[in-house]
Amino acid sequence: LMLGHALIAPGRLGRLHALRLQARKALDLLWGVALMFVVAAAIEAFWSPQPGIPAVLKYTVGGLLWLLVLAYFLSAGRHRAA
After folding, report:
1. Pairwise CA distance, residues 53 & 78, whole Å
2. Which of 66, 1, 74 is nearest to 36 (CA)?
3. How many CB atoms lie within 10 A of CB 22?
4. Are 44 and 37 contacting, i.e. CB atoms less than 8 angstroms apart?
5. Distance CA 24, CA 49 (A)
C-alpha cells in the first residue's frame, strides 16, 4: 500500500524520491516479518517435535509468544510526541 501510494500520489516529491522513502519504511516491515518467520520456523523445527517436553509447557510457551505478538501489534508505530 505504501509503495503504490508513493507512485500514485507522491505529493510534492518526485515519484522516484517518494518511492525510495516509502521503500525504506517497507523494508523495516519486511525485516520484522522475516524475523517472525525465522523464530516460528525454529520453534516448529526444534521445540514442537520434542517428545520429552510436556504438552502443558508447550501450550504455555505458545500462549506467551502469542501475547508477545499481540503486544507488538498493539504498540507498533506508536511514538511519543516530542
Report:
1. 37
2. 66
3. 19
4. no
5. 38
Note the pLDDT tens digit of each residue in 29-40. 888 889 989 989
Are 19 and 6 in contact, with CB atoms under 8 Å apart? yes
pLDDT at 1 over 70: no
Q: What gap in Å lies between CA 18 and CA 71, rounded to an integer?
A: 31
Helices (H), the chain: 2-8, 15-42, 55-75
Q: What does the block give as the cell for 9? A: 500520489
Write down the residue that cell numbers 517472525 correspond to. Answer: 36
The residues near 11 (Cβ < 8 Å, ≥ 6 apart) are: 18
